[in-house]
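In response to the reviewer comment on reproducibility (Comment 2.3), we provide here a single inverse folding case reported in full, input and output, so that an independent group could reproduce the run without further information from us. The structure tokens appear first.
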């Protein structure tokens, strides 16, 4: 179960090739009431082209994307990762390398190498807080609600917004925290929700917790470019049934995830076929 003492990493996304035949994904955009965005994914996609400062980045790149997403929904939640020093995930980030620390404020110059800048946890923490602040002071269309996490707390454009179910929150990753926001969205009266991510972990967690979130439709807007599609979580959860849906995170872990070694020479498809032999 290891590669010369190191974790053996399989391909996490192989799990989707096992799941999607149960309920094929769709290319068209579903009609939903609310959306939850993985902020780190959005920032990674929205590279600063033809801008010099972070203020210009917000005005010319980041906020136009946020406005475009808000035009499709009544409520938009942006969830950011937190970076804890004493963390198992911290070991993964160390392996990916680290960049120099850079200041983040309105007049500060945007780094030339965006991806390199995002390899520093302190850079990302400062950037995420800055963007959260900027989002919530910008004007938004009437009747819309914008919510953003900022560390363990939550900010909103709506003065009367009840964040008691969302803060303080000690979740380190947006993966789990996005589902907390999806549940709060349903409590607020919206029953069709889409979650934007590029991580298979979120698909697994969404299926496992679909029954607890209790929304009519839960979609995952997954991938980028030509691989982008919408995955119907409510249909997948129904096809798997309640027991397998709840057991999916365990299966995902045992067949290889970020912090658990995969079986050498036994891919996810083999594990899936084996699981399916048991009722």
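Designed residues, in position order:
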């Amino acid at each position: 179960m290891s590669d010369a003492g190191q974790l053996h990493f399989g391909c996490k996304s192989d799990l989707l090739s096992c799941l999607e035949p149960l309920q094929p994904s769709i290319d068209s955009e579903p009609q939903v009431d609310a959306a939850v965005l993985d902020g780190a994914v959005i920032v990674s996609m929205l590279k600063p082209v033809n801008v010099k400062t972070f203020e210009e980045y917000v005005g010319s790149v980041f906020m136009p994307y946020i406005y475009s997403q808000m035009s499709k929904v009544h409520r938009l939640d942006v969830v950011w990762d937190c970076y804890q020093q004493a963390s198992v995930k911290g070991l993964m980030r160390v392996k990916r390398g680290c960049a120099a620390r850079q200041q983040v404020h309105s007049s500060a110059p945007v780094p030339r190498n965006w991806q390199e800048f995002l390899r520093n946890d302190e850079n990302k923490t400062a950037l995420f807080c800055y963007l959260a602040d900027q989002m919530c002071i910008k004007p938004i269309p009437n009747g819309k609600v914008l919510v953003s996490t900022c560390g363990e707390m939550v900010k909103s454009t709506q003065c009367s917004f009840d964040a008691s179910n969302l803060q303080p929150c000690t979740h380190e990753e947006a993966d789990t925290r996005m589902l907390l926001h999806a549940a709060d969205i349903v409590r607020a009266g919206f029953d069709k929700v889409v979650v934007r991510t590029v991580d298979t972990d979120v698909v697994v967690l969404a299926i496992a917790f679909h029954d607890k979130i209790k929304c009519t439709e839960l979609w995952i807007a997954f991938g980028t470019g030509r691989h982008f599609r919408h995955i119907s979580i409510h249909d997948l959860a129904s096809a798997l049934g309640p027991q397998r849906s709840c057991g999916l995170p365990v299966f995902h872990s045992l067949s290889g995830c970020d912090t658990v070694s995969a079986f050498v020479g036994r891919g996810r498809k083999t594990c899936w076929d084996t699981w399916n032999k048991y009722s």
